[in-house]
Amino acid sequence: MKAAFMYGAGDVRIATVPDPEIRESTDAIVRIVRACVCGSDLHPYHDMGESAEGVPMGHEFLGVIEDIGSDVRTVKKGDLVVAAFAWADGTCEFCLDGLQTSCLHGGFFAAGGVGGGQAEAIRVPQADGTLVVLPVAEDSELLPSLLTLADVYGTGYHAAKQARVTARTTVTVIGDGAVGLMAVLSAKRLGAERIILMGRHTARTDLGIRFGATDVVAERGEEGIAKVLELTGGYGTHTVLEAVGYRAAYDQALGVVRPGGVISRVGVPQYEEAPVGFGSLFGKNVTLTGGPAPVRAYIDELLPDVLSGQVNPGLVFDQTIGLDEVAVGYAAMDDRTALKSLIRF
Ligand SMILES: [Zn+2]
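Above: inputs. Below: predicted complex with zinc ion.
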């Protein structure tokens, strides 16, 4: 089969590799129907060292089950399924807590010997805990929206849930990438009436307004902070959903969070050190939370509104490519000409 591999910064290519096979009795083999490129795939795209054998890419996909191991119970051959980007057994201590990204018997796609989702097929470990059946046909127009349940919608929702967004909380979303826009949609879903989106790409912030943002702040840094404070009577917002991952975004979050508020981070931090003392978190009684989203915990909750068309998170896909063109998708997302690239098979 064909699969995308990264061989170094800026170097993504299609390789021909053996078809995946069942290895454990809890595995399923999925023929991929839709996949996509993630903003987090751009981090290695910027700084990965050269690798002759390459690393598999992609962790967002939906597809049809071709084969299952002897212990798989909740899905069967022929089912159209979506996978959470972290595979998990669904039964351990942490899965039962709704924290599947910490599963004792889980892991991540495109890592640790498990293939990537930017491929014609994939072996899914822990199929029962990882896969969710989608009650639609393989050619459904809902597929792009359903694919967002694999990562970006669930990740935006995690940001909002961890921040305890409700109708009574004001919200700042930092970042107008797909996850930031999904955080806007999620805050709206949880009832927030005031959602300030910080982003400077008009096409994206326009989509953010469609998803529920009430204000857009294009300025960044001190200027952006001043603008948010001005919009909130000088106080800042109760919650800040940080969907970027760079230190500058963290500093921006500190600047716009209201005393007693919550900063919830879902952008993968590209830094290990940042202020936590009196002048930042402590003095304002601010809670810092967030992490890799256990999207599997949210799929059942988010699925009905996607199926009914109540929400249309698939609008984040503004480019559709074939697997052979995957390098085009990376380049377009990297130079910001595409928000998110959908791969059709
Ligand atoms: Zn588990």
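Residues 88-89, 92, 94-95, 103-106 surround zinc ion (CB under 6 Å).
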